[in-house]
Write a structure and sequence with these properties.
single chain, 472 residues, alpha+beta, BirA Bifunctional Protein, domain 2, 17 strands, 24% strand, binds phenylalanine
């Protein structure tokens, strides 16, 4: 369907195409089309989709004098005079004299022995009003009164104002940038589909994804499940009894002190399990002191080994069977200074195996298998002292970037002194490994603060999946 548009209407479209959206009365002024004709033209053009006509408000329509129309085109007397400065009053034409009057009144210029000089950079009032008119703004009552006093404004009428904007020229085909079902259905004949530019750069989107720690923790879980382990859990807030006493850590052991342990509100006290006296007796056989008070203190667990002992107790009670392989990947808390390799809360991979034929070499083999599947190839063991294991071994992993061995865990065979009070007489091999340290080795991160805590590098985390692909 091609509509014929007359020359006048064509001119209106052209005017709108090359300007900001205009109010109907502005368009009337610019086009010099009489208002009645204009309104019927606009109705026709908007019905046929060439322009858009929106009712703005019950606005004011201004009827300006021909003088003001002239000012709009050629500038105001004030402006024209200011451009000629410095100048003597003698040579001024009548128009310029009008300008001078107003400039003097507004104290923008002064007269000095017949010479006009500028004394203020303030914009002449009429200029600022004309700027508003050019931008299509409504005038204030003061401004209207002022224009009337200068015979520039003839009348102010209130009538609906329309905002007219350009849509398309007759014969223009509208470009489609997005295909909608309605569009396909209508198969509009006056449309042309814009081709996709597949080489165009798109906006980088960072969708939600797993944190590297979670990625590794999930991977560890899969590896351990694959090695025949089952997952166990335990409380984050532990009693001194489960966190330390059961593990045969003497009550005056330095790690119990405020330095390492976060204690919970001292007014809250834990209940002790029935077999607590067995643990107490074992302590008193070897150590000099025992205080129930100390056992009942609540702490944020400093390791997940209490979870292992809670489950060993279940085994001795027959609630879980033996042999058994259990693990947990959970958060622990230590009041340590933060540095490249230490955080006050971190995650441990706890695990133990209870059964027959367990030895140190079985323990080393298990940990080697685990780390190998995790992609941590170079590990080594070093004998160490541990209150609850004998023998005990620290586990170290080789960090490429730091170019040194870093501690990644601790392990051993649980001591008879820990197992007997629980009623266990089988061997138990056990370990606690740091998830964060494994992440550091695997992704060659030299400073753990880069991925956890307030100094986290958002860019590293955003690019993390790509990073994983690179190192794998
Ligand atoms: N609980 C020890 C730690 O936090 C790890 C460990 C667990 C050591 C089990 C031996 C046996 O470092």
């Amino acid at each position: 369907m091609y509509l014929s548009v007359n020359e006048r209407q064509d001119k209106l479209i052209e005017l709108l195409a090359t300007s900001r959206p205009l109010k109907d009365w502005e368009l009337a002024q610019l086009s010099k089309v009489p208002r009645d004709t204009l309104m019927s033209d606009l109705d026709f053009l908007s019905q046929n989709g060439f322009i858009k006509q929106e009712k703005e408000s019950e606005g004011k329509t201004y009827v300006f004098s021909s003088e003001l129309q002239e000012y709009l085109q050629k500038g105001t007397p004030e402006e024209n005079l200011l451009q000629k400065l410095p100048i003597s009053v003698l040579g001024l034409n009548p128009r310029e004299k009008i300008g001078l009057q107003w400039l003097l009144k507004e104290k923008i210029v002064k007269l000095d022995f017949g010479n006009i000089t500028r004394i203020s950079q303030t914009k002449p009032y009429v200029v600022s009003i004309l700027e508003k008119i050019k931008e299509g703004q409504q005038l204030t009552q003061d401004e209207e009164i002022y224009l009337k006093s200068r015979n520039l404004l003839k009348d102010v009428k209130t009538s609906p104002t329309y905002l007219i904007s350009f849509v398309k020229r007759p014969g223009d085909k509208k470009k489609i940038t997005q295909i909608t079902p309605q569009l396909i259905k209508s198969r509009a004949q006056d449309t042309e589909l814009q081709e996709y530019d597949v080489t165009e750069k798109t906006i980088q989107v960072y969708p939600g994804k797993k944190h590297p720690l979670q990625v590794i923790a999930d991977e560890m879980k899969q590896v351990l499940l694959g090695m025949g382990f089952k997952e166990m859990d335990g409380p984050i807030v532990e009693s001194g009894f489960w966190n330390f006493d059961v593990l045969f850590m003497p009550q005056n052991h330095p790690s119990r002190e405020i330095m390492d342990t976060f204690f919970i509100n001292p007014e809250l006290k834990a209940d002790l399990p029935e077999f607590f006296d067995k643990v107490r007796d074992e302590h008193l056989k070897h150590y000099s002191s025992w205080s129930e008070e100390e056992s009942r203190k609540l702490v944020l667990r400093t390791h997940t080994t209490p979870s292992s002992f809670r489950h060993l107790k279940l085994i001795s009670e027959g609630k879980l069977k033996s042999p058994q392989r259990l693990f947990s990947i959970n958060k622990v808390f230590r009041n340590e200074a933060i540095d490249k390799t230490h955080l006050p809360e971190f995650n441990q991979v706890e695990g133990f195996i209870i059964g027959e034929d367990l030895s140190l070499s079985k323990l080393m083999g298990t940990l080697k298998t685990f780390y190998e599947q995790m992609g941590v190839k170079k590990i080594k063991f070093k004998p160490v002292y541990n209150p609850y294991t004998e023998p005990s071994m620290e586990v170290f992993g080789w960090h490429e970037g730091l170019n040194k061995w870093i501690e990644i865990g601790n392990s051993g065979l649980f001591r008879r002194e820990t197992l007997e009070p629980l009623g266990i007489n089988q061997r138990v091999i056990a370990w606690g490994l740091a998830v964060e340290r494994a992440v550091m080795i695997k992704y060659n991160i030299q400073d753990i603060r880069q991925i956890v805590g307030p100094h986290t590098s958002m860019n590293f985390l955003r690019e993390f999946n790509e990073y994983v692909d690179l190192v794998n």
